[in-house]
């Protein structure tokens, strides 16, 4: 996968230095190794939609957790409600702890606004040091579905609201790369199985995929 990077409030400069450098390098490597799962005629009505984002989502989930990111972290808003963050990783210098919160977004634009709120809330509560957003670029999103959030739109919104988001946020755009295409039409799994993250065949497929990438 090709990547596009946007650094808001010096996020990339910070992550490129200790004690964050190893975590940042690992994160970029995970994203670069992400496959582009292709299933021709995924949609009978929209022929251009041929990328199965659920495979990418599951791949990122398993790789991030194996690299020490905590999944679905809860943070109380009040006595009855809480926010759920996709991933959190604690980085320590030995003297001070830092939190990195990460959101993976393949949903619609409204989902991105929830991500902004969550990161801003955590920053307000002094629980967040750096935010990371992972989204498809516009070119890749057009092959996944219509109306989903994109890297380009997110970057534009952060730049427009520069005075509001006054903490470091790194935006990673997952971009199309022909060399990373993974044709799935001829495989043993059906389209429904490939799209169902709760299906055991889906899970086993992604785990085998990761093993082959690491081999």
Automatic annotation (TrEMBL):
One of its GO terms (biological process) is DNA restriction-modification system. Pfam families: Endonuc-BglII. It comes from the Bacteria. GO terms for molecular function: DNA binding; magnesium ion binding; type II site-specific deoxyribonuclease activity. This is Restriction endonuclease. It comes from Peribacillus simplex.
């Amino acid at each position: 996968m090709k990547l596009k990077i946007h650094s808001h409030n010096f996020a990339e400069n910070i992550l490129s230095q200790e004690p964050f450098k190893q975590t940042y390098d690992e994160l970029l490597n995970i994203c670069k190794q992400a496959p582009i799962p292709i299933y021709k005629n995924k949609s009978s009505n929209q022929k251009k939609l041929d990328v199965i984002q659920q495979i990418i989502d599951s791949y990122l989930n398993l790789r991030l957790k194996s690299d020490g990111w905590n999944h679905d972290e809860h943070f109380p808003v009040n006595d009855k409600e809480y926010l759920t963050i996709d991933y959190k990783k604690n980085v320590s210098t030995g003297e001070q702890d830092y939190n990195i919160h990460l959101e993976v977004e393949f949903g619609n634009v409204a989902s991105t606004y929830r991500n902004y709120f969550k990161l801003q809330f955590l920053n307000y509560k002094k629980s967040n040091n750096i935010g990371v957003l992972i989204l498809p670029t516009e070119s890749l999103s057009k092959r996944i579905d219509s109306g989903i959030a994109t890297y380009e739109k997110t970057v534009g919104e952060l730049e427009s609201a520069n005075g509001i988001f006054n903490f470091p946020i790194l935006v990673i755009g997952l971009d199309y790369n022909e060399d990373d295409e993974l044709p799935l039409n001829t495989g043993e799994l059906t389209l429904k199985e490939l799209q169902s993250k709760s299906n055991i065949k889906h899970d086993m497929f992604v785990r085998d995929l990761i093993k082959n990438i690491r081999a």
